[in-house]
Amino acid sequence: MRIDPRIGSILDKALSGGEISAGEAVELMKIDENSHEMYALMSAGNTLTRRQFGDTGEVYAQVGINLWPCHRSCAFCFFGEDWNLIRSPGELSPDEVVLRVKAFEEAGANGIFLMTTADYPFERFIEIGRAVREAVSPRMPLAANIGDFTAEQARQLVDAGFQGVYHVFRLREGRDTRVDPEVRLRTFRTIRDSGLALLSCVEPIGPEHSPEEVVEAMFRGREFGAVNFAAMWRVPVPGTPLAAKGKISEVSLAKAVAVTRLVFGDTIRSMGVHEPRVLGMRAGANSIAAEAGPNPRDTAEDTAKGIGYSVEACRNLLREAGYTPLQGYTKAFQK
Ligand code: SF4
Predict the structure, then answer these.
(1) Which atom of ligand 1 is nearest to the CA of 177?
(2) What is the arithmetic mean of pLDDT over 227-234?
(3) How far is the CA of 118 from the centre of ligand 1 (A)?
């Protein structure tokens, strides 16, 4: 079987440890999804991951803390104040957060994320973080998924026991969101200069995003030294403005995973796909996430009863994709 020699040479370069350029990544993103080249691309992503991580797959688990209208009103988010979708605002108490995190730990999660809306009080988040830190194994890595923050707040996160932060410059940030892109970038610089590891993602990918936009997000993550990077599709949450634009296919998501994997080479410690899907895990992703509590992609008050996966379901999916779920704690949340 022959594949396009130009595509073949880009894949060979990545497979032999070379860095591919943004232009080359765009060429890969434009591959016809029913072509031999598509499967060669997925194979290259899969090969890089299995060569670097063996057959080890990882499950992270995220607890959403609050269900509040958020004044940023991102055009894809269930929490957006302007979309008026939240019927009963609320938040988990520190004890409830701890209970959920402990349940995730007992189920075998390899790392924990705590998530709030962008405007959640920082001090309250730190209190919850400290309570979680005390309750779980000292070896359990913790990551914060919160709004933008300062260098002083980064120090407080480290003091409270966090090793990492999930931070993203969303596709069309500042246009589909009311987040100032400059503030977003400032937080990336803050993270780079802090003791916190950066976990990031190209998200939320919709059918309208060009290959160039998607690739730009990958390179931004690489520039800021992300230790885990993922590709995530946009879930069309009914009632949000972007829902009408629909959703990319699982194959398109797998393509974004594979290209991301090639862009990052061996600079990352794990590679993710959101939401958990086998095709993405056959294209270079070896980490997926279980979720509980409120979630911006879900209309259920507790995503564990909605679209969120349990740790057990994630571990089963890893096995289905040919991975052995990691026993113990990830080393991915390290600078
Ligand atoms: S994505 Fe984050 S910043 Fe945007 S509306 Fe939702 S909670 Fe707020």
Answers:
(1) 4
(2) 97
(3) 6
Distances (CA, A) of 57 to 13, 132, 137, 330, 335: 25, 24, 20, 10, 20
Residue spans of the domains in the chain: they are: 5-325
- Ligand 1 atom closest to Cα of residue 119: 8
CA distance 110 to 88: 32
- Give the Cα separation of 102 and 51 in Å (integer): 32
Q: pLDDT tens digits, residue range 168-198?
A: 999 999 999 999 999 999 999 999 999 999 9
Domain 5-325 has CATH 3.20.20.70: yes
pTM exceeds 0.90? yes
Q: Which pLDDT score is estimated for 335?
A: 81
Residue type at position 43: S
List residues near ligand 1 (CB under 6 A).
70, 72-74, 77, 79-80, 117-118, 177, 179, 296
Testing ligand 1's pocket by substitution, the residue of 65, 71, 72 carrying the most ligand atoms inside 8 A of its CB is 72
User: How far is residue 84's CA from residue 255's CA, in Å, rounded to a whole number?
Assistant: 34
Q: Give residue 22's pLDDT.
A: 98
Which pLDDT belongs to residue 163? Answer: 97
Mutate to test the pocket of ligand 1, among 117, 168, 274 (most ligand atoms within 8 A of CB): 117
